[in-house]
Amino acid sequence: MSFFDDLLVLFTDKDGEDEEKIININDDGGSDNSSNSGKKSEINLFKVLDKLPVGIILLVLLLIYSSTGIYKVGPKEVGVVTRFGKYIRQAESGLHYHLPYPIEKVYTPQVTRVKRIELGFRTIDPGPPARYSKKKKEALMLTGDLAIVSANAVIKYKIKDPIQYLFWIKNPDDTVRDASEAALRQVVGQNNIQAVLTGKKTQIQLEAKELIQKTLDDYHAGIYINNFLFQDVSVPEPVEDAYRDVASAKEDKHTKVNQAQAHRSQIIPTAKGEASKIVKEAEGYKAKRIAEAEGNVARFNKLLEKYKAGKDVTRTRLYLETMEDILPELNKIIVGNNSQGVLKMLNLDKVQEEGVR
Question: How is the subunit organization of this protein annotated in UniProt (predicted)?
């Protein structure tokens, strides 16, 4: 028997005995159909309520209303209780009670759950195989050297402060996505395209994560950014071929530069060695010439002293020394001083053959 059937037994008079029996028969699977039984139960319920004291009815209703304040906080949740919309307390996991609505209301956000936000794309079907849709307005960004890149990223976050999370921001997912897009555009705009695509990709992710966290803290969002990861960073499809050509040209440039530097590394040491050799030879020649000049100066100074002491003697000696150096290399013809008339030539044939020097 149901609770209302028990009430019927207690409060119906003898005139209602037949109706009670009908209800009991129907509850036990009797012959009457369910629709008729339901109608009669409702009729009997109203009769019971009419016969109950008003105080008991109000008490029952009050108990039912009061029981709506019982709530449970899960192990991964935290309870946030408000009274007339104003925060008053938090509740840990377990059974708790708050004043029934609309006096108090409880929120139970999952503070340990890590949520995922997608930037530049949306997952249609996780698969496998996974299917995605592109969001070009979010993905296309301008680099510091005025190039365009398409950046897709995944942001993971969780609740850091449940009170701020519930009452300071209206839509947490949209707030995180907007802050992430703004932060990523700022960081990408501070780097050239090569750094964004390859060179500083990891550093850009870290800088974007820090900037997103700072922005959310300024908003008092009560959100902690667990991770920021690029899903894909590339040039837009319409300019992909042109970018490949530019990249290929840059590779050729680097190759030529490396070859030139290698050749430079080979040539410069050789040139330096030759230059050092020439410098040393020049220094040796310089020292030699200086020594010779100094020797000549000393010799001439000595001659000058002797010349001053005896000019005729010195002049005669210098003449004779000079003749000693010159005459041995010449063919000589000696002519007597006493010869008169025709000049007699000795060894004329030999002189004609060898020549006179």
Answer: HflC and HflK may interact to form a multimeric complex.
